[in-house]
Amino acid sequence: MNAYIQNLLSINEQKADVIRLQYWLQYGSTLKGLMKNYKVDPNDFLEQTHNIKSYAGLVYPAENLTKTLASLPGKKILFTNAPKNYALEVIKQCDIEKYFSNLHFIECSKFNGKPSEESMKIFLAKYKVKKAHFIDDEKQNLKTAKKYGVKTIWINKGQKKPLYIDKKITHLREVLRLPIF
User: Fold this and answer.
1) Peptide bond before residue 115 is cis, with ω within 30 degrees of 0
2) Which pLDDT does position 134 carry in this prediction?
3) For the segment 24-56, what is each residue's pLDDT rounded down to a tens digit?
């Protein structure tokens, strides 16, 4: 992303990194900030910043990922800020597509990424979510989910659990031990 910003704005990597982080904090994603401030074509941005030739050696599934997903009851929807092509490759490398009834990419939310309220509204409406548990490793994403009445589970090893987080676990496999499942 920094290289894209560097080329777009003709700036050095350090300045590009500052803009990338600033937009992520201010708009919920670097992409949204670039779209708003520089009229960047989101498809071009995603294609250029997620153009990976080989995913082998880059993607390592969490320990017991398939076993955990197979054991979770109910409908599972993958909600990612990644673009479709990139996410499908990661999902393929992890061999987990069969565990999800739906896959929700950043394109599905009109390029609004988590934690934006816009993306959450689109997600909940599209899949007619009424009662759910939202599992994420980014607490800001969970804050938005909680605001819309979704139960929240945070995967985090160190930080203190904020009030809007219902449950905190350190590894995905621990979700199976929660009394909600």
Assistant:
1) yes
2) 98
3) 888 878 999 999 999 999 999 999 999 898 888
Q: Distance between CA atoms of 170 and 112, rounded to whole angstroms?
A: 28
Q: How many domains is the chain built from?
A: 2
pLDDT, tens digit (0-9, with 9 covering 90-100), for 110-122: 999 898 999 999 9
Query: Which residues, 6+ apart, have CB-to-CB distance to 181 below 8 Å?
Result: 72, 73, 175
Same domain, 102 and 42: no
Contact 30, 24 (CB under 8 A): yes
Domain region containing 122: 65-177
The verdict on 170 and 125 lying in the same domain is yes
Beta bridge partners of 103: 78
Encoded tokens for 38: 């520089």
Q: Label the pairing between strands 102-104 and 151-155.
A: unpaired
